[in-house]
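Handover notes (outgoing to incoming on-call)

Open items:
1. Nucleotide exchange factor GrpE: sequence verified, structure written out, both below. Nothing else pending on this one.
2. Nothing else urgent.
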Amino acid sequence: MTEKYEELKNNAEEAKEQEEKKQDSNSEGQEQTKEDVQKTFE
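Nucleotide exchange factor GrpE structure tokens:
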């Protein structure tokens, strides 16, 4: 179970890094994404 957890954690971190790279190349989109996320959690 621990190995599976580590794998999932690593995958999540990798996905986050990919998302950040995408947002860096499109900062206007990043602002839009933040707003959308906030709306989702409200």
